[in-house]
Amino acid sequence: MKNSVIKGLILLFLGLFILPLSSLLFIMQIKEDYQIILLIFVLFLMSILLVLTIFYIKRRVLAPISIVVKETMRISIGDLAAPIHYNKKDEIGQLISAFDSMRNELYVQQLEHQQFEVERKQFIDSISHDLKTPISSISAYIEALQDGIAQTKSEEKEYFRVIQNKIHLLNELSQQLSLSYQTSDSVSIQLERIYCHEWSQRFLDTVSMDCHTKGIKIETSLDHSSFQHNYMNVDIYQLERALQNILDNAYRYTKELLALSVAIQDDCFVVAIKNDGAEMKEESLEQIFQRFYTNNPQNAEGHLGLGLFIAKTLITAMKGKLEATLQKDVITFIVSIPISD
To answer: From residue 70, how far is each of 75, 80, 98, 148, 169 by CA, in Å?
Structure first.
């Protein structure tokens, strides 16, 4: 090792021991008149070597240790951002480099913890707001029924229908929360081999019926010519859940345009969902897949901003991709899943 501290110390200490020993042997062999002069000269050299040794130890040992002590004090109060600079590649340099690696790991963990705390606060705020609305509504309708406000059986049935819808909303929120901290590696996926064309036709029919029930106009397209005998390995329940999350988001913002198309492109099963009414900027597009992201945090519909996050988690778990593009106020979600042989 070129800059070894140990090597330098050994050379200096050898000089301090060998020089006086060899000098004494040499002085004993010369005339007595010159012995005092040589002794003074040797003592002078020894003093220089001693000063150099002290300077070397201070610069190459004590100074780096003082850096470590200073950085330790800084780290102990939670200041982990600044890296530790030390340019030597000797043994102490390796120690400081390892110490800096530890600091960097702690800094990464600190940032992750800070992000977790931000998400936790956002989660609590979202839950408090989004659960309060349906619970208050259920309570109000139950009190109304107890007070006999419903004059007819049809009114009473309508009240119960609203309560049932609110309970369904709470169940949906509960299911979303169960997936809110899952990752694509940890989410439970049961893959099965599915015939793409048959499933696509059934899915489009189901979505069309749902839109008709909701009073939403939708354009559907199935590119029959692109399909052959194509199969995909997916979890049908999780795939439909992911697509439904995307559609629910589209239902919420659509004004005039809602389109759904399915095709085989570049050895992938591709579903494209397009709708207008997107009120966001291009640079904010990637945020829509973040946990708890919502354009309207003061919504009264109980939306936690988890739908698109969960959709991307589920699709990624099935080796697929979920991407979004934006053109003016029209947003397009593209789901791509590799087809199998």
So the answer is: 9, 12, 16, 75, 56
pLDDT over threshold 50, residue 259 = yes
Per-position b or e across 299-310, b if 16+ CB within 10 A of its CB: beebbbbbbbbb
| Closest to 104 in 3D by CA, of 75, 76, 66 | 75
Identify the CATH number of the domain defined by range 192-338: 3.30.565.10
Q: What is the reported pTM?
A: 0.56
Pick from 316, 326, 180, 204: nearest CA to 253: 326
Query: What are the residues facing 337 on neighbouring strands?
Result: 269
Burial zone of 55 (CB within 10 Å; 0-12 exposed, 13-18 middle, 19+ buried) = exposed
Alpha-carbon gap, residue 248 to 332, rounded angstroms = 14
Q: Can you state the percent helix, strand and coil of the chain, rounding each to 5?
A: 60, 15, 25
What is the C-alpha separation between 291 and 310, in angstroms, rounded? 8
Q: How far apart are CA 295 and CA 228, in angstroms?
A: 40
What is the per-residue pLDDT for 309? 83
Closest CA to 6 of 90, 130, 72, 70: 90
Q: pLDDT of 135-164, one tens digit each? A: 777 787 788 778 777 777 787 787 787 788
Q: For 85, which DSSP code?
A: P
Class of domain 121-179: mainly alpha
Using H for helix, E for strand and C for coil, what is the string for 243-304? Answer: HHHHHHHHHHHCCCCEEEEEEEECCEEEEEEEECCCCCCHHHHHHHHCCCCCCCCCCCCCCC
- At 321 the pLDDT is 94
Q: Residue 315 pLDDT more than 90? A: yes
Domain limits of the chain? 5-79, 121-179, 192-338
Helix (H) or strand (E) holding 195: strand 192-195
